[in-house]
Q: What sequence folds into this?
């Protein structure tokens, strides 16, 4: 894509061979894709700009999306089988989970019920409004299982926006940060890209991913443009994500 009469760059033009490590493309088990057809539509949409490698990460969220390895694996198998039927052999689809740090999180970790992104990383999230009381204990539990905690979309936690020192504290504790691609636009609101840019400027972002739930978000992603300054900062993060998970 070429953005005429502007120094802006389409973000998706930078995603050839990207590995999307956070998305909700498995059907019927959280607030993402509802059907296998929805899943395939999302995968085809990503393929248009060169993304064919995914780690699907449905929510594990007590009382809302009480997923388990079994429920996630079953949804994953449905999509894998349909990909084979459709001859989409070039698609790499693994599965993990986005783990909410809630009252069920620590018992789940103690019982070995978590689903890491790989042998080294566990994707976690928390409420957008306030941190969980037992956040520090939860992070210690993750580390004690020889996993690096990866905090999903740190730029979206509103309670941190005026307390930037908290981000620095998290980083000092070994927490990795995963930025959402859509956070480089106003998709989630005007404040989010400002925080995202500051985190990039401070070299705090480790990985980047789509966190796409539906075709509307995917279409919005296709329309995101970024400045040369943002492009320079985000390109190494894209490359690091590919290198870490390919």
A:
């Amino acid at each position: 894509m070429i953005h005429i009469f502007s120094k802006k760059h389409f973000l998706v033009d930078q995603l050839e061979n990207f590995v999307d490590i956070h998305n909700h493309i498995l059907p019927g088990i959280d607030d993402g894709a509802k059907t296998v057809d929805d899943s395939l539509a999302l995968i085809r949409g990503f393929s248009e700009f060169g993304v064919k490698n995914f780690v699907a990460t449905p929510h594990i969220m007590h009382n809302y999306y009480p997923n388990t390895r079994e429920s996630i694996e079953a949804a994953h198998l449905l999509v894998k089988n349909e990909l084979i039927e459709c001859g989409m052999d070039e698609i790499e689809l693994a599965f993990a989970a986005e783990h909410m740090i809630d009252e069920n999180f620590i018992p789940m970790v103690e019982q070995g019920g978590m689903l890491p992104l790989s042998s080294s990383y566990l994707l976690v999230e928390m409420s957008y409004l306030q941190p969980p009381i037992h956040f520090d204990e939860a992070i210690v539990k993750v580390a004690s299982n020889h996993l690096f905690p990866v905090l999903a979309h740190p730029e979206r936690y509103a309670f941190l926006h005026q307390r930037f020192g908290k981000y620095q504290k998290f980083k000092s504790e070994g927490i990795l940060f995963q930025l959402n691609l859509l956070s480089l636009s106003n998709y989630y609101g005007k404040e989010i890209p400002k925080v995202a840019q500051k985190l990039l400027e401070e070299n705090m972002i480790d990985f980047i991913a789509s966190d796409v739930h539906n075709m509307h978000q995917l279409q919005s992603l296709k329309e995101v443009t970024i400045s040369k300054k943002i492009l320079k900062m985000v390109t190494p993060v894209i490359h690091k994500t590919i290198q870490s998970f390919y």
